[in-house]
Amino acid sequence: MERMPEVLLDRRSETPLFRQIADAIRRLAQAGSLPAGVKLPATRVFAKRLGVHRRTVVAAFALLQEEGWLVSGVGQGTFIREIKELVDADIKDLKDVY
């Protein structure tokens, strides 16, 4: 796993912490600071580093998986998804609609 860029949380914000974490990871992926294929830290490790409960990180990862930004496998870890895969999935979804 490459070094994870710092994720800053604003505990006074009205935005829930899990959403702040998800937003930060999404921005880092879009900017290329977390390139496709990068393995993210385990949820326990990441939660400890951020000073939040593990469920907060699990919720952030689940949101990003639902949006298509992350892929994970049991015992393998969680990875940033290829942007091309996101685009292909969006195109497929559009074809299914029309």
Structure description:
With 98 residues, the chain is mainly α. The chain is built from 4 helices and 2 strands; from the N terminus they run αααββα. The chain has a two-stranded antiparallel sheet. Strand 1 and strand 2 form a beta hairpin. Helix 1 crosses helix 3 and helix 2 packs across helix 3. The mean pLDDT is 88.
| Structural classification | mainly alpha
Q: Flag low-confidence runs.
A: none
Largest sheet: 2 strands, antiparallel
- Counted by DSSP, the helix tally is 4
Strand content: 5-15%
Arrangement of strands in the largest sheet: 1-2
What is the N-to-C order of secondary-structure elements (H for helix, E for strand)?
HHHEEH
Number of DSSP E strands? 2
Q: Which of globular, elongated, flat, extended, rod-shaped describes the shape?
A: globular
Average of per-residue pLDDT values: 88
Q: What is Rg? A: 14 Å
Topology, please?
Elements: H1 17-31, H2 43-50, H3 54-67, E1 70-73, E2 77-80, H4 83-97
Antiparallel strand pairs: 1-2
Helix pairs in contact: 1-3, 2-3
